[in-house]
Design brief:
The protein is of the alpha+beta class and 163 residues long. 15% of the residues lie in helices and 39% in strands. The chain is built from one helix and eight strands, in the order H-E-E-E-E-E-E-E-E. It is rod-shaped and about 100 Å long.
Length: 163
């Protein structure tokens, strides 16, 4: 059952019990007693009070009752450059867009980084330039996420927000 419905039913049950208890207590007196006299209207009007406020919250409907699969607690990012010779490599080393540069790295080159899992997927960025053809690849938790090839002397760029 829906938790909100259970809560409402519990409140309704408590209210019914309170009303029943009040009726029993007030009705337990002597039936032969005279009816109470009418109460005169108050001389002054009662002070006005502010209207009651209602706070509501809408809950998103759930689409499945099956438990969700466990989510990894970190992103494992693997950057790779393939080609021959050496290359200049620029990459994001923390998922926050701050870049790190390495000059004259021998190809093939790779680096695996572990970033803490966040609510928003991080952005990856890998750029490599070599005197010959070069290819960049970005894998996330072992699955290829981005790849690109560049001709001689051009920059291969693999960048974007992970999903």
């Amino acid at each position: 059952m829906d938790r909100q419905l259970i809560g409402r039913l519990a409140i309704a049950g408590i209210t019914v019990a309170a009303v029943a208890a009040t009726v029993v207590i007030l009705g337990a007196g002597d039936d032969s007693a005279p009816a109470p006299a009418a109460v005169a209207a108050p001389a002054a009007e009662a002070p006005q009070r502010a209207p009651d406020r209602t706070v509501t919250r809408t809950l998103a409907p759930t689409t499945s009752t099956a438990p969700a699969a466990p989510v990894p607690s970190s992103w494992q990012i693997t950057y790779e450059l393939t080609g021959s010779g050496t290359a200049t490599v620029v990459y994001d080393d923390n998922g926050l867009g701050l870049v790190h540069q390495e000059l004259s790295v021998p190809l093939p080159w790779s680096k695996t980084l572990t970033w803490p899992k966040t609510a928003v997927a991080p952005t990856v960025q890998l750029m490599g330039q070599s005197s010959g053809p070069v290819e960049c690849r970005v894998s996330v938790n072992g699955v290829l996420a981005r790849s690109a090839k560049a001709a001689d002397g051009e920059v291969a760029t693999c960048a974007g927000r992970l999903s």
